[in-house]
Amino acid sequence: MTLQQMRYFVAVAAAGSISEAAKELYAAQSGVSEAVSAVEKYYGVKAFVRTSRGVTLTSEGKELLIEFKGILNRLYYLDEKYGPHKKQEASLSIAAQHHICGLDSFMALLDEMKAEEYHMSFHECRTSEVMEQVEKGLADLGLIFFAEPSKSQMVQELRSKGMIFNHMAYQRAHVYLWEGHPLASQKEICLESLVDYPFITYDRVVNANPAYTELVVPYYMIHKTISVSDRAAAYSIMRCSQGFAVGSGCRSLDPAYKDIRAIPIENGVSLEIGWILRSSYVLPEAAERFIGMMEELEIRQNII
């Protein structure tokens, strides 16, 4: 099976006639006919019903047409992106845990981006989803934190998935809550004082590893939980329910979040913050710049 045979097949389906397709392709009619026959023979199907008025696709032919179009469209995209004399566009995809550094650096990178074309993404998601996106190549790198006592378990899991962890900083676990919360004026917050308030969590799902958050706030201490999937929902819920979340202590400079406080947990566990990537993956230039910005703009500002 060749790409030319696929192209001839698609052209015949579009024209509804082998002779018309040959004219459009500037090819010999016999060559187009042979290409279609070769496809049918290769897959052992009858793709077209031939009549004196032209050809029509069979159900099997329609299935082949869909597949061939997908392959040819993908090749066209690759030629457009990587073909001769094409400018390399900038791209960066980040997967990050909630309440971690990275967003400010991502916005700073966008602000200075000079490329004529770029494709950028920043996805906040659950810990397990961060690892999944990096493992599958959907993200260039992932930003995570975990409690120090669970480091060996985390590193082992990452290795089993073909990923490596790169350390950036240590930070005491923090509580995030609204500035109007009864505990918002505290310099440190004791875990026992949080018992009567709703715990807003991202990782409280069936397929999540409880070690990601249970060592920060033991679930046996929690009487009320609210599961969410995004930071905006968490902050809105904090404002109306006196709920709280836990995280690394990093705060965004975005003014939309200026009423959210990050307060250290008294005798809280130490969190290790870093980024993960596939062990054999070479980071694109934009990712290298992002990491440098993050260490300069956010790690030093938030964790000193």
Automatic annotation (TrEMBL):
The keyword Transcription regulation applies. InterPro entries: LysR_HTH_N (IPR000847), LysR_subst-bd (IPR005119), WH-like_DNA-bd_sf (IPR036388), WH_DNA-bd_sf (IPR036390). Keywords: DNA-binding, Transcription, Transcription regulation. It comes from the Bacteria. Transmembrane segments: none annotated. Residues 1-58 form the HTH lysR-type domain. One of its GO terms (molecular function) is DNA-binding transcription factor activity. This is LysR family transcriptional regulator.
